[in-house]
Structures are given as C-alpha cells and as structure tokens.
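Board notes (copied after class):
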Amino acid sequence: MTKADLVEMVAERTGFTKTDVQVIFDMMLDVIKEVMSSGHNIEIRRFGTFKVKVRRPRMARNPRTGEPVPIPERVIPVFKPSNEFKEMIKITPEKFKEMSGVK
C-alpha cells in the first residue's frame, strides 16, 4: 500500500477531496519529521510512539574484504506500536502469508 492508496481511502471515508487529504497528510508527515528532528518523541494514544533513539557506535565488517569498519554513534527514528495496535493486527504467520501473497 502506498501513500496515494492511503490518501484515496481517507478521501472515500471522509468525503474530502483527494487533494485536501493529500495536503493534510503531507503536512502531518512534515510536522512529525520536524518535531522528531528537534529531538522530541510523539505519542499517539492507541496507535504508538515515534521516538528518537541514539545508536551506540560499533564495529562492523565489510562483507567483501572482511575488514573491520567503524560505525559511529548516530540518532535514528523508531516506531513502537501500542499494545492495542499490536493486538488489533495479531494474526498467525500462515494467515499473513496467505493475505500478502508470500510463499
């Protein structure tokens, strides 16, 4: 599913035009990125939390040469779904494979 698919679904359910929904959707994503880039977390109750997390520095390996490669400390965005959200999408792996077409 793409952003365009989501916009279409919201437009159909709300009666707003796709253009209006697209503008609101894009603005919401921009605000989320802006807030997180300033180091703040965003909690959306019954959905989940967008967090900013610091990853520790570590040593990795170049798969071609086997040579050690240092990876510096970095800040990354993460999403943690709420328990309610996790329960809502709880399905068996077999059912998921059937729904998604994965073999």
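Comment from the instructor: The first strand starts at residue 42 and ends at 44. Residues 1-38 form one domain.
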